[in-house]
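INSTRUCTION: Work out how this chain folds

Token vocabulary: learned, describes local backbone geometry

RECORD BEGINS BELOW THIS LINE
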Amino acid sequence: MKHLLLSATALLASAVMAFADPVEGTWKPEVDDGHYAHIQMRMCKTTVCGVIKEAFDANGPVDSKNIGKLLVWEMEAQGDGTYKNGKIWQPSKDKIYSSKMILDGSQLFVSGCVGPICKKQTWTRVN
């Protein structure tokens, strides 16, 4: 019985790992308008989303009305470290961009466009 329980636990753990997306975790975007945040990337149903977990300025953590808000949503994983058809919100400009991402180890290359205006950032993994 003990071996059966251990086998079942190992099988469950490997199944959970199989469904985890490599981009899941906490990421730090580049500084924007003197501020940055830690973004918690996770699965939201069948797509990847990112929620503002903490906010910072040059002096450290700050209170922000944006903590807990979605910054990234509807990112579709392509299975090769690329994500497309997502949306990303830039709080400092209150603009929503059509977005895509490329995961490369501990870096996430994020780009977004509103019409002809496009922006790019490199995010670094916090954990």
In short: The longest helix spans residues 2-19. The domain at 23-125 is CATH 2.40.128.520 (Lipocalin).
